[in-house]
Design a protein that fits this description.
The chain is an alpha+beta fold. Helices cover about 35% and strands about 15% of the residues. It has a 5-stranded mixed β-sheet with strand order 3-2-1-4-5, with helices on both faces.
């Protein structure tokens, strides 16, 4: 059961006042005894709601509360609200209108900046009103400050707010959420620290964790490394819902998802509420596992504990969002057939190609590593480099419908390798005599070859 609380500040004060005079209300006092009891209460100390110190109340105040209670009960003890609250009475009507117009047009300006500008401009006397009074004026007219980031999210005065609704997919494997959680740094056994980034994929309909792992980095390839085993084990989801960060905005994901038949979705920038499903999971993971991993000295120790927590507790615990069902039972109850992917489909989807220039020493750099090819005739040419991000397969070169292997450069071994001459294309002798042709034309001599000969000797 939740603790019952007063509905607002005024009712909280009214309850306090009723408790102060409560003993008087319950007593059957005769003439003259009320005054004596009020004098006695006036010497006692009470702590009002929200106050840091105790205080006493005068006899007239206590008497007013007593008769108010007898006349109207608890509602009569509610403090009366000022009729001019929030109207900044120190300002004229024109000045209040000016302040409200400035806030509506320049929603990001602070009360201090608005006041200092108006004072410097001569439109307001210095010290005429405090920033707190101006903020209360804005609050009374529902004109909060809107920062530039909030304005970029579509918020602002005069703009309609978007309604938020609780939603979820109808069945498992229709939508997977993906996100990264920054855990406490890993303290290595030999000293030093390394960052820990926990990547996870969560099924929307069942809240089932289809993949989770800890890495030292937060890169696109880390998500691919997490996604591929999940696709092999659980099949392909219809959609993948990710954050809008650079980790999830690369070309590899944008190309691989359509190839696999998945829709890649990104959350609206600066809208953390749209990622509430993952944020709630991160909270559960922190409270149940991450906050207690201070003794781990390797990623392996963290990963085995993460999977132990997910498999032994999270997947089997009743979930409030699933009406008491566990994520494991909700995920196992799926009725739609899983779309299984073959290794060939995965390899094709995760193969990326780019145009690169081969150096004169038959080398080229890929992903920060230098590779070389035995096809020396490709030196100095622009070729297509293909690389499959499935496993540890080495990249290769595709040129004129042929494939050429690449291997990491071994500079020490190359110092003892024999330099073979590059293949030279055969040269066919062709008669070509520009001065002779012009001489034949000058003396009226017939061409040496007909047009149908094609210039053959």
């Amino acid at each position: 059961m939740e603790v019952m609380r007063p509905r607002d500040r005024a009712e909280e004060v009214a309850v306090f006042r009723s408790q102060v005079i409560g003993t008087l209300v319950c007593q059957a006092l005769v003439r003259g005894e009320l005054r004596a009891e009020l004098c006695r209460l006036s010497t006692m100390s009470f702590r009002p709601p929200g106050a840091q110190r105790t205080r006493t109340f005068s006899v007239p105040t206590l008497e007013r509360w007593f008769y108010a209670w007898r006349a109207g009960g608890l509602e009569a003890l509610r403090p009366a609200k000022r009729s001019d609250a929030g109207h900044a009475q120190a300002l004229t009507a024109a000045q209040r209108t000016l302040l409200l117009d400035i806030r509506r047009e320049y929603a990001g300006a602070s009360a201090e900046l608005i006041l200092s500008t108006l004072v410097s401009d001569g439109r307001l006397d210095e010290g005429a009103v405090s920033p707190a009074t101006v903020r209360r004026l804005f609050a009374e007219h529902d004109l909060p400050r809107i920062t530039a980031r909030e304005a970029a999210r579509g918020k602002g005065h005069g703009k309609g707010k978007r309604a938020r609704l609780r939603w979820q997919m109808a069945e498992p494997n229709m939508l997977w959420h993906g996100d990264v959680c920054h855990a406490a740094p890993l303290v290595l056994a030999g000293g030093g620290c390394r960052p820990v980034r926990v990547h996870a994929l969560l099924d929307d309909a069942s809240r089932y964790v289809v993949a989770i792992a800890a890495y030292h980095t937060e890169r696109e390839v880390d998500l691919i490394d997490l996604l591929v085993p999940a696709l092999r084990r659980h099949g392909r989801p219809d959609s993948l819902y990710l954050d809008n960060g650079s980790t999830y905005s690369g070309k590899l994901l944008a190309t691989a998802c359509p190839r696999l038949g998945m829709t890649l979705l990104h959350a609206r920038p600066y809208d953390p509420e749209a990622r509430g499903r993952m944020e709630r999971f991160w909270r559960t993971l922190r409270e149940g596992a991450l906050d207690f991993m201070g003794g781990c000295t390797s990623l392996h120790d963290i990963n085995v504990r993460l999977w132990a927590f997910v498999d032994r507790h999270y997947h089997n615990a009743p979930h409030a969002g699933l009406m008491g069902k566990s994520p494991a039972s909700a995920f196992a109850a799926r009725q739609r057939a899983d779309v299984r992917l073959t290794e060939e489909q995965l390899a094709t989807a995760l193969t990326m190609r780019s145009r690169r220039n081969v150096a004169r020493d038959s080398t080229l750099s890929i992903g920060g590593q230098v590779y070389e090819t035995d096809a020396g005739f490709l030196a100095g040419k622009t070729v297509t480099v293909a690389r499959c991000h499935l496993g540890q397969q080495a990249p290769w070169v595709e040129h004129e419908e042929k494939c050429f292997t690449l291997r990491p450069v071994d500079a020490i071994a190359n110092a003892h390798r024999r330099r073979e001459p590059l293949p030279v294309a055969p040269v066919r002798h062709v008669e070509f005599d520009p001065p002779g042709v012009m001489l034949d034309a000058a003396v009226g001599r017939k061409p040496r070859h007909g047009a149908d000969e094609g210039g053959a000797p």
